[in-house]
Amino acid sequence: MDRYQGFREFVQTRGAALSRTAYLLTGSHHEAEDLLQSALLKMAAHWSRVAHDGNPEAYLHRIMINERTSRWRRRRPRTSPEMPEVPAPWDEADRAVRRLTLAEALAQLPPRQRAVIVLRFYEDRTEAETADLLGCAIGTPKSR
Fold first, then answer.
1. Helices 127-134 and 56-74 sit at what angle, rounded to 10 degrees?
2. pTM of the model
3. Tens digits of residue pLDDT in 4-46
4. What is the pLDDT of residues 75-96, one digit of tens each?
């Protein structure tokens, strides 16, 4: 039996969604690629056990969150940017500025807070699912 049986199929079917999650966790396409690749390498080493347990995507999310947290701790930002004044009408330029401002604000959050926001509001997970993926109490995502 092949030790990596099903791994290639998992990556092909879930790769795009996992890449989007990695981007939301990092805020950079290059960092997202690195994060996803290193997480997949770590998961491949334990693929037979992970595939047998039946929830490889949750395992990979956990690896990405832990890896992102470790990287953030090594390169913690020193200052936080000032939030700009909000213009009244919303045209395309305003939307672009808001999107960039939001991405910048997300980049300043600690990894665990960012992970909660990504899981709860982008992936539309429940508080219980978010707490389970982060390995914390159900009240923790509420407080973050």
1. 70
2. 0.54
3. 788 999 999 998 999 999 998 888 899 999 999 999 999 998 8
4. 766 566 666 666 556 677 777 8
Residue type, 78: R
pLDDT digits (tens, 9 = 90+) for 58-79: 899 999 999 988 887 777 665 6
Q: Quick check: 67 and 38 in contact, CB under 8 A? A: yes
* Closest C-alpha among 125, 130, 123, 129 to residue 144: 130
**Long-range CB contacts (within 8 A, 24+) of 74-78:** 77/107, 77/108
Tokens of 14: 């879930």
What distances in angstroms separate CA 60 from CA 55, 56, 65, 137, one per listed residue? 9, 6, 9, 20
